[in-house]
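Query structure, 217 tokens:
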């Protein structure tokens, strides 16, 4: 009887992109560039400035409403914050059965004076853990069933024309984000259809996902 009750799964992405403490990299200007023996070059903050935006053609900041399947799925709005390292947070969904998804679409916008290059997409471990995803059974729920269901619950990321990934990309070349342009960032929270169910509630926590942009390819 217990195994037939509806399962509620809460998938939480604490800070995405600075999915997630999304940070924007400044690798090309992390040290002083010696142009001449008597001259140093230090860039202004506006030189390399990739931020999050709700629009492709200009920097706009609003909450991001996810597209959910089915329509009854409860999911929170994403929140953009560019005040320090750009971050989008509050991405979460309360899954009740396999086959449900919440899709967030926003943009990485190049507000700087130089072209920017996406160098990597990094899925980080949860703070204090040795994994990028941890599933925890609630009281009365079988941990064995939870871990089987957990295997098919994921966060997927697609940036511009890069292929969607659920594990990250350590090295990316030839991916340009021109100044005064934006590229779509799509985050999908998914409980895969046809997968295992647990016999009660459980929580799914994900580590941060970092998009690293540089001024040099």
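Result returned for the query:
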């Amino acid at each position: 009887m217990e195994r037939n009750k509806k399962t509620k799964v809460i998938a939480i992405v604490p800070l995405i992109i600075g999915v997630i403490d999304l940070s924007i990299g400044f690798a090309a200007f992390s040290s002083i560039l010696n142009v001449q023996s008597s001259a140093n070059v230090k860039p202004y903050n506006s030189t390399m400035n990739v931020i999050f935006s709700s629009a492709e053609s200009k920097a706009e900041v609003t909450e991001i409403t996810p597209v959910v399947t089915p329509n009854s799925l409860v999911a929170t709005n994403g929140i953009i914050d560019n005040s320090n390292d750009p971050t989008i947070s509050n991405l979460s969904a309360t899954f009740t059965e396999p086959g449900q998804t919440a899709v967030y679409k926003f943009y990485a916008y190049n507000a700087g004076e130089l072209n920017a290059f996406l160098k990597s997409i990094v899925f980080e471990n949860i703070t204090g853990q040795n994994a990028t995803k941890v599933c925890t059974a609630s009281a009365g729920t079988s941990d064995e069933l939870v871990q089987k269901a957990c295997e098919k619950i994921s966060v997927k990321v697609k940036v511009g024309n890069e292929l969607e990934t659920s594990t990250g990309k350590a090295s990316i070349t030839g991916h340009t984000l021109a100044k005064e342009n934006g590229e779509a960032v799509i985050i999908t929270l998914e409980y895969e259809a046809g997968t295992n169910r647990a016999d009660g509630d459980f929580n799914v926590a994900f580590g941060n996902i970092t998009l690293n942009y540089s001024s040099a390819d």
